[in-house]
Amino acid sequence: MASPTSKPTVAILGAGPAGLTLASLLRVQSIPYTIFDLSSAISTAGGTLDLHPAAGQAALRAANLWTPFTKHARPESDVMKIVSPAGVVLWDENKGAADEQPAAETEDDLFGGRPEIDRSALLSILLEGAGGADAVTWNKKLLEVIPAANGTHTLRFADGTVSESFDLVVGADGAWSKVRNILSATKPHYSGISSLELWSLDVANRNPWLAAYAGAGNCFTFDADCAIQAQRNGDGSVRTYASLRVPETFFADYGVDFTAPDAAKHVPAYVEKYFGNVGDDLKKMLLSSTDKVIPRTLYHLPPGFSWEGKPGVTLLGDAAHVMTPFAGVGVNAAMLDALELSKAIVAAAQEPEKGGLVEAIQGYEKELFPRGEKYARKTLKNLDGHFRKGGSEDIAAMMRMVHAPH
Predict the structure, then answer these.
(1) Does CATH number 3.50.50.60 belong to domain 10-75+114-187+302-385?
(2) FAD-binding domain: from which residue to which, for each copy (predicted)?
(3) Is 3.30.9.30 the CATH classification of the domain at 190-300?
(4) 48 burial type by CB count under 10 A (0-12 exposed, 13-18 middle, 19+ buried)
(5) Which whole-number Å values give the CA distances from 238 to 213, 275, 387, in the listed order?
(6) Fewer Cβ atoms within 10 Å of its own Cβ: the N or the C terminal residue of the chain?
């Protein structure tokens, strides 16, 4: 492993939020790293995210990326609308026109909550923080991590290349992590939920009704074994997720290829079959969101997942605790993982008298496991609570209680 006076060399597998946050944090501390990613460029997939002050926001501040974040974040979208399956609005934090809002006086007023940011914008900020696109070695499919006699690790890739002499290999390679296979045989399992993601583009101009109905942030409906969740995105779109509690083979068994270019023509039949009893406005929202259709089968790792530590290898983000989106904590958990892991790596480099890199990673994992379990259990609790009769009403009641005058 790295000598007491040298900085560890770090391999980061994955250029998503977890990997790029870690790279940005290490760059600030002048810790050498190399990022490898399976894709040919940064991903533009995903909708909008809310970043929490003690998690995603804290990581951005530590990586000196706060200013670009404030330029792309949308504090006005930190609002929620809850609608019953029948279409009754139970809770709505949208306040109307912007000129009706009190002016924010300080940055804390604007960003003290959980401002939204498009995933693509966040990744662009993090990529720049990590050194730009040239800081990533693209098109690298990992085949094997090989421990060397001197305690370092060699990476072998599908294109026949190898990269050697890494003191630490970090799996930030998502739900189906190859690095996780070194540490555990556990695989993500089906959550019981499948979603059809439906896009409506440029809603302000093309569909003002949908823009007004969905609101500036999130619009949710939950019922027995089904949910409708709409998100306003900074790119001008509304993305709506029509979710069902169904078997894992649901989309295959349905008999329609929702990945085909003409998938939109099948949306009306799908909506009528599975969401035919919802209120007219909710049905209209689904039927008017056919610019892009994406089927999603949701997987997660079991709460309490952990692994027996191995020197020179660890995980963060979805590789460590992939969850469904029903608590909205996935990216925040990943960025907090990166923040805590960067602290452990820096401490090992700067304070060798307190223990080496192996001990530092053990300390990181000791804190990671209960934190990941907490997030996973919260997500599972939300999933079970949302996908049942009265789910919308329960959330609205909770919101009224939280916001009641004290």
Answers:
(1) yes
(2) 9-215, 313-374
(3) yes
(4) buried
(5) 10, 19, 22
(6) C
